[in-house]
Amino acid sequence: MRLTDTLPLLRPSILFLVCVLAVAVRLFATQRYESIIHEFDPYFNFRTTQYLTSHSFYDLHNWFDPMVWYPLGRVVGSTVYPGLMVTAGAAHYVITSLLGPLEIRLVCVYLAPVFAALTSLVAYATIAELHSYSAGLLAAALISVVPGYIQRSVAGSYDNEAVAIFALLFTFYSWMRAVRTGALSWGVVSALAYFYMVASWGGYVFIINLIPLYTVVMILVGRFSRRLYVAYSTFWVVGTLASMSLQNILFIPVQTADHMAALGVFVGMQGLMLVLFLQSKMSPPTFRAFLKVSGVGLVVGGLAALLLASVLPGTSGRLLSLLDPLGKHMAITKSVSEHQPMVWTNFFMDLHLLTVFMPIGAYVCFSKPSDGGIFLIMYAVTAVYFASVMVRLILVVAPVACLLSSIGITSLLDTYLAAFVAVDDKGEKRAEEQRSKGATPAPPRGLAIGVVCVVAFLLVFYVVHCTWVSQAAYSEPSIVLSTRSHAGRVNFDDFREAYYWLRMNTPEDAKIMSWWDYGYQIAAMANRTTLVDNNTWNNTHIATVGKMMASNETAAYPLLRQHDVDYILVVFGGFLWMVRISGSVDSSIKEADYMSPVSGRYAVDDSASPTMKRSLMYKMCYYRFGTQQTDPYRSAGYDRARGVEVGVKNIRLRYLEEAYTTEHWMVRIYKVIHPTALSPPPARAKARRALRAARKAAKSSIRAKAAAAGSTRVLTPGQRAELSARDAVTRRIAAHNPFLDLSPALGAAGKSRKTKARATPSRAAKRKARAAQRKARAAKATKAAKATKAAKAAKGGKGGKAVGKGGKGAAKGAKTK
């Protein structure tokens, strides 16, 4: 006996309450903060929606945005999935037409919870189609609060997945209806749902590969039918033609390897139907001969298909990381936290008890195989694999986990609730008759009561867990951070504070450089031109920004001027991926140079490498930080986030100046000094000219004195020291402002040194000069002695003594002279 499927008015009431629950559990963010957009990508979607509502769809189709990816720009119309924007724009048009003016921001904020309610209805319809109405109601209730889906559908999460999960589930529902009924109309509906999915999210590749895989499996297990042929042919033809009408898709479905499986299965099914038709028209011997010939043609066609596949464009980096998670892929792909592998704790947090009941539901579908049940099993297996490779894809697992869990829980309860059938004598007789016929008897009532109570407790615990996760983990907008202290909740609104400062205090044509994570937010909230953003379509441009951040200030300044950067916005801390991404493109950036020689890891304290300490990012993060007392029990310059004291506290900037630092030092903005601002002021230029004239005069005086004395030495040690001191002053001026042309001032010292080198005699000449001086002194001494003797002989006595003294004094004076 199954759960009661009666009371037609009860099911709509339950579905209505489920929809209310799906919306209410996603409103914690708006109640705690305000109606704001979350995360990073939603800000681009919001800005694009504003453009759509203020212009037209034709303008959006041809929109070229020069304010992003400067100086390249971006053709938005051919690089965006417009489904989300068109949905929000259509909803805004309907609401304003019926109820009056409404801000487009409110439509964007509450769009995801509304589509979550619609997804719950589709989940009910899917399981009601495959199993029972009671299981459908349970599936709707489970998916309305599952954390794996809530994380991308809370109020303010204006991302593509907000509508894409609804499109994904509705595509699968209409596809299973088309396979079961074989109706052409349901095939068209599934194709149109697929078209909406293609217009909304790049995850449509999962659909266009899962459905062909399912079709091949159905053929291999012997479940091929004309219903499957009609469903797949209609789905592929209509869906492909519709998707090719999108500007960002065009001929991708028939050109890239991502879509070749669907095309190959379509061609194969046409060949299979042709073979079945010929079999019905040919005799067995003729048909066998035809199979031999067609087998040779099939081999040749397969080789041609492989050759064609070898020249087709390759798959995207994200898809390659899914198919080959251990391979070497672009650093920009690995840097995104959403692309990291899944861990078991994330599975339990996002699915909770569904991780237990999903295998039970898969077992039930496998034990009683049907076309829809086989599809759900294949959907679950492939989705779990991709989610284990990329944590973001838990979003795709959550719907099928709810669908299979509802089947498993309902089947379990149906089995054990059989013990509560009438227990009178007739009931006992019916049980004995069932046992005699080999049917499974009803379980004991005690065991049944225990199982039902455990399942009920787990379901209640599941709702409590989902509610807690929704309000504690997935309702925190990344643009406003919060924490708890002894005084209660503390909000950090530094990002919006910084963007508002940029909007109000910078020129409208200012170019802002930041890491690519914050490009969308700067463009949407500050309305300023950015160099890179979250689109990440140009890895080389992002690597150039990373190189500027990782280089020293002198090497980064020419690149900053080359890209016309006016302001630099940095978020406190964070060096790893700037180095890795820039190093993947420019070989001059080596990650090992930024590792600490002591620990071999990234460090910002005294053990940090010299390259790290000289990098522009390090200087911009910790400029003036050495004077900040962040902890009363620590010295100044203590980084509480990393638990270390910074290695360099007296950081000086030559080409940048601090423009703004937010309240909590989370975001810092620097202005790039223009070369004209680096020119010397008039007073300094005047002092430089005076110094140059003084040096010229001193040099002329020294040369004149040297020429008058007739000495071979042009500069004395004292004179050289004087010139060196003046050179030091000149060089200090040059170090403060390297754009000054001080070569004339320094030229005097250079010329003096050259003059000295030319005037300095050789060693042989010096020896001759010293010998000549000794001979001159000896001749003077001999002459003085003769003069003394002559004086003594002439005067004698005292006079001679005096004369002798005078002669000695004269000799001494001559010696001194």
From TrEMBL:
Pfam families hit by this protein: STT3, STT3-PglB_core
Catalytic class of the enzyme: transferase
Instruction: Supply the InterPro entries for this chain.
Output: Oligo_trans_STT3 (IPR003674), STT3-PglB_core (IPR048999), STT3_N (IPR048307)
* Ranges that cross the membrane: 12-29, 75-95, 107-127, 133-150, 162-179, 191-217, 229-254, 260-278, 290-312, 347-366, 373-397, 403-423, 444-464
Q: What is its main location?
A: membrane
Biased composition range(s): Gly residues: 796-810
Cofactor(s) needed by this chain = Mg(2+); Mn(2+)
Its subcellular locations are: Endomembrane system
UniProt catalytic activity: a di-trans,poly-cis-dolichyl diphosphooligosaccharide + L-asparaginyl-[protein] = N(4)-(oligosaccharide-(1->4)-N-acetyl-beta-D-glucosaminyl-(1->4)-N-acetyl-beta-D-glucosaminyl)-L-asparaginyl-[protein] + a di-trans,poly-cis-dolichyl diphosphate + H(+)
> Where in the numbering of this chain does the STT3/PglB/AglB core domain appear?
511-561
What does UniProt give as GO cellular component?
endomembrane system; membrane
Tell me its EC number(s), please. Answer: 2.4.99.18
Q: Which UniProt keywords apply?
A: Glycosyltransferase, Magnesium, Manganese, Membrane, Metal-binding, Transferase, Transmembrane, Transmembrane helix
Taking every annotated instance into account, which residue ranges of this chain make up the domain Oligosaccharyl transferase STT3 N-terminal?
Answer: 16-404
Q: Locate the compositionally biased regions of type Basic residues.
A: 764-780
Membrane topology of the entry: Multi-pass membrane protein
The annotated regions of Low complexity compositional bias extend over 781-794
Residue ranges for the region (Disordered) are: 744-817
The answer to keyword Ligase applying to this record is no
Q: Hey, which family's this protein in?
A: Belongs to the STT3 family.
Q: What is this protein called?
A: dolichyl-diphosphooligosaccharide--protein glycotransferase
**Source species of the chain:** Thecamonas trahens ATCC 50062
